[in-house]
Design brief:
Blueprint (H helix, E strand, L loop, with lengths): L1 E6 L2 H8 L2 H8 L4 E6 L12 E2 L9 E2 L1 H11 L6 E11 L2 H7 L4 E6 L7 H7 L2 E4 L9 H12 L10 H4 L18 E2 L2 E2 L2 H4 L3 H19 L11 H12 L1
Parallel strand pairs: 1-2, 1-6, 5-6, 5-7
Antiparallel strand pairs: 3-4, 8-9
Helix pairs in contact: 3-5, 9-10
Length: 241
């Protein structure tokens, strides 16, 4: 997979993209990512990329031409899937991240100030994605969230697929509780089933706990999951207790 990110702050992104799981996947060639400074594509001698909006709103708006010039130079001869990180976009989900991980070429546009001139969004953007119903100073942090969520599902990034398939939201439920050594901490015992070595019982416990945690923390998610009669019985019993 190839990822290009158009931003005013490439150094901010590069630091994260060179670290931890994402950095190791990048080093192994599982994906490539390049950060492009939009200021390098302006014709303004002061490297300005913004101007006041016509709406008389306070603040500055990123201009069309530098963004468009960056996009054309970076994607010459290619047609990537273009994503604009925007609070107006569709909220990022695990399912959408999984779908994006199947693509070969992604171009991410990071806005700043009061956003980007609507005309260039209409010209080049395929979809807008938000990471939540709130506003940040720029699109760099959302872009990192998007890249991380996508890259970790590429073959070879994690040691096994179940490293992410068992996680919250992958199958619609939240993840079951996790424990490590010591076996007893502050008089709290690791559940005995996890010490039993009985694989089938452990899998059953994991599923039951995922149901119960979802019911407790995010009950609205259960409306989107196909539940079996056994699942409903577990939830009903817990609700009566």
């Amino acid at each position: 997979m190839r990822i290009d990110i158009a931003t005013l702050f490439p150094e901010m992104l590069e630091n994260y993209l060179s670290q931890s799981v994402v950095g190791r996947a990048r080093d192994k060639g599982i994906f490539t990512v390049k950060c492009h400074n939009i200021r390098d594509y302006t014709l303004d001698k002061h490297r300005r990329v913004d101007d006041t909006p016509y709406s008389e709103r306070q603040g500055m708006l990123m201009q069309c031409e530098p963004v468009y010039n960056c996009f054309k130079a970076v994607t010459e001869g290619r047609k990537p899937h273009v994503i604009y990180m925007s609070p107006q976009g569709r909220t990022l989900t695990q399912q959408r991240a999984k779908e994006l991980s199947q693509l070969d070429d992604i171009f991410i546009l990071c806005g700043h100030y009061e956003g980007v001139d609507e005309r260039v969004i209409e010209e080049i953007v395929d979809e807008e994605i938000s990471i939540g119903d709130y506003v940040l100073t720029g699109g760099e942090l959302p872009a990192l969230v998007l890249v991380d969520s996508v890259v970790r599902m590429l073959d070879g990034t994690l040691s096994k697929a179940d490293c992410y398939e068992d996680e919250s939201h992958y199958n619609g439920l939240l993840e079951y509780p996790q424990y490590t050594r010591p076996e007893i901490w502050h008089d709290k015992q690791v559940p005995q089933v996890l010490l039993s070595g009985h694989h089938a019982n452990i899998l059953k416990w994991r599923h039951e706990q995922a149901l119960l945690i979802t019911q407790k923390k995010r009950p609205e998610l259960l409306e989107k999951v196909e539940l079996t009669p056994a699942d409903l019985a577990i939830l009903h019993k817990n609700g009566e207790e």
